[in-house]
Amino acid sequence: MSGGDTKNNLRRTLWNALALDANLYENAANNSKTHRLALTIVILAAVSHALGSSVILLISVTKFPPLPILVLAVVIDVLSVVLGYYFWTLTIWKIGQWLRPNHAKYGDLLSPIGFAYATQVLNFLTVIPLLGEPIQLALAVWSLLAVIVAVRQGLDISNRTSTLICLVGWPLVQIAIGSVQRLEFMLLNRFSG
C-alpha cells in the first residue's frame, strides 16, 4: 500500500468515524492493518489533545516553564489519552463479557473504539478563546456517541445496552483526563516560578 493510499484510507476512516457510520464500526476487521489505523487515530487524537492542553496551560502559567518540564507535560498528556483508550476499551469489554460471556475478544473492540476517537483529533480547537470548554465538552459527547455506535456494532447489542456499557467507563476516563490536566498545570506552575 502506497503512502497516498494510506493517507486516503486514514482520511476516509476519519470522515466515516466522524459521521458515526455504523458500517465502519461493523466492518472493523480484527487484523493488523485495522489495528494500526485505529491506533494512528488514537495517537493523532492524543497529540491534538496535548497541543490544545499545552497552549491553554502555557497561557495559564505565570512564567514559561523549563523546556524539559514542558516536554514531560506533553508526554504525560499524550500517554493519558492513549492509556485512557485502552482502559475504556477494557472497561467496555469486561462489562460486555458480563452481559454476553465469550461474545467478543478484547482485541475485537480495539479497532472500532479506536476509530471512535476520531472526534478527538479536533481537540486542538479547544484553544479558541471562550469556546474551549464548550468545544471540549462537545467533542467528549461526540466521542461517547461514536463509542456507543462502535460497541453496538462490535458486540452486536442494542442501543440501550451499548449506551449503558459505555456510560460506565466514560466518566472514569473524563475524570482521569481532567486529573492529568490538573497535574500538568500544577507541575508547570511549580517549575515555572
Description:
- With 193 residues, the protein is mainly alpha-helical.
- Helix content is 79%, strand content 0%.
- It is built from seven helices and no strands.
- Helix 3 packs across helix 5 and helix 3 crosses helix 7.
- The model has no long low-confidence stretch (mean pLDDT 83).
Which helices and strands appear, and what pairs or packs with what?
Elements: H1 3-18, H2 22-26, H3 32-60, H4 67-99, H5 106-116, H6 132-155, H7 159-192
- CA gyration radius, whole angstroms: 17 Å
The major beta sheet can be summarized as: none
**Cα-to-Cα separation, first versus last residue:** 50 Å
Strand content: under 5%
The helix content is over 70%
The ordered string of helix (H) and strand (E) elements is HHHHHHH
Shape: globular
- Quickly count the helices: 7
Mean pLDDT: 83
Regarding quaternary structure, what we see is single chain
Number of strands: 0
Ranges with pLDDT <50 over ≥5 residues? none
Overall SS class: mainly alpha
Short description:
The protein has 193 residues and is mainly α.
Salient structural properties:
mainly alpha; 193 residues; single chain; 7 helices; globular
